[in-house]
Amino acid sequence: MYQTDRIEDLCGTLRLPYLRDHYQQEIDHAIKAKLSFHDFLLTILRAQVVQRVDNSINRALISAGFTAIKRLEEFDFSFQPQMDEKKIRELASLQFLDKHENIIFLGPPGVGKTHLATAMGVKACQANKRVAFFTVQQMISELVLASTTGSLPRFLQKINRLDLLIIDELGYMDLNAVQAGLFFQLISKRYEQGSVIITTNKNPDQWGEIFNDSVVASAILDRLFHHCHPFIITGKSYRMKHFQQTKTAT
Questions:
Q1: 243 pLDDT above the threshold of 50
Q2: How far is it, in rounded angstroms, from Cα 36 to Cα 53?
Q3: 36 confidence band (pLDDT: 50, 70, 90)
Q4: Largest Cα–Cα distance in the chain?
Q5: Sheet holding 195-200, edge to edge
Q6: What is the pLDDT of residue 2?
Q7: What does the pLDDT look like over 97-141, one tens digit per residue?
Q8: How many Å from the N-terminal Cα to the C-terminal Cα in the chain?
Q9: Which domains does the chain have, with CATH numbers?
Q10: Neighbour count for residue 124 (Cβ, 10 Å)
Q11: What are the residues whose beta carbons fall under 8 Å from the beta carbon of 74, sequence distance 6 or more?
Q12: CA 169, CA 202: separation in Å to the nearest integer?
């Protein structure tokens, strides 16, 4: 009992929760498998590292603020045959982050824009990148609050430390002059400093309507599209597909 208590105490002190909770099972396995001391040590250390990495990824996923966790492996490319699947999978290697390139997913509601944007963000979290996900409404609220409280420079600096900023649903709300100006400052701060993924239901020639200012819209487009991978999705809605399948089943 004394040895058990000491082992658990020492594992706690060293912050080795896997070893604390599973060392006896690992010992039993090592005895049955007739592992050498070196193999036993390698096994338990590897298991501890795997758990620590998994915990780190989970914290990053929570911190990113995704509305739901979506993975690229779950995306049905057969339902959107016009999508360049090869290009999407190339981008999933995350080299675009190193080059500070952007991605724009454009299309009507329900075609998978948010799924793909989130999947890229999840990949980035798994690669230990700093990621944040905002809807446009959330981002505008944060920008207005920061501007009102005099903390805008600090907020923009915080955002600029991200490896990937995802802004979802651009085009679903029109912005006034103040909001448009704040959004322009955000994009200007990120320009060639970090990657941005935007999902939108509006073509670039309609962005003047979103920002209520064609000059501001052009300036934002110029910075986003300078180093950009645009994807236009014109397929059917996944949500309507599931609705029709449910209706058929009933």
A1: no
A2: 26
A3: confident
A4: 74
A5: 131-135, 164-170, 195-200, 102-106, 228-232
A6: 66
A7: 999 999 999 999 989 999 999 999 999 999 999 999 999 999 999
A8: 60
A9: 2-64 (no CATH), 72-241 (3.40.50.300)
A10: 24
A11: 115, 119
A12: 10
Predicted local distance difference test score (pLDDT) of residue 61 = 84
User: With contact defined as beta carbons under 8 Å apart, do 164 and 195 qualify?
Assistant: yes
What's the confidence (pLDDT) of residue 33?
Answer: 80
Assess contact for 155 and 191: CB atoms under 8 A. no
Paired strand residues for 104: 198, 230
The owner of tokens 């979290």 is 125
Q: List the structure tokens of 226.
A: 């300078």
Orientation of helix 136-148 relative to helix 152-160, angle to 10°:
140
**Above 70 in pLDDT, residue 54?**
no
Following CA atoms 74, 76, 82, 85 in sequence, which dihedral angle do they give, to the nearest 10 degrees?
40
Is pLDDT above 50 for 96?
yes
Burial (CB < 10 A; 0-12, 13-18, 19+), residue 157, is exposed
In one letter, which amino acid is 162?
L
Angle 17-33/2-13 helices, nearest 10 degrees? 130
pTM: 0.77
Name the band, by pLDDT with cuts 50, 70 and 90, for residue 55: low
Burial class (CB in 10 A: 0-12, 13-18, 19+), 94: middle
Q: Which two tokens stand for residue 99?
A: 């080059």
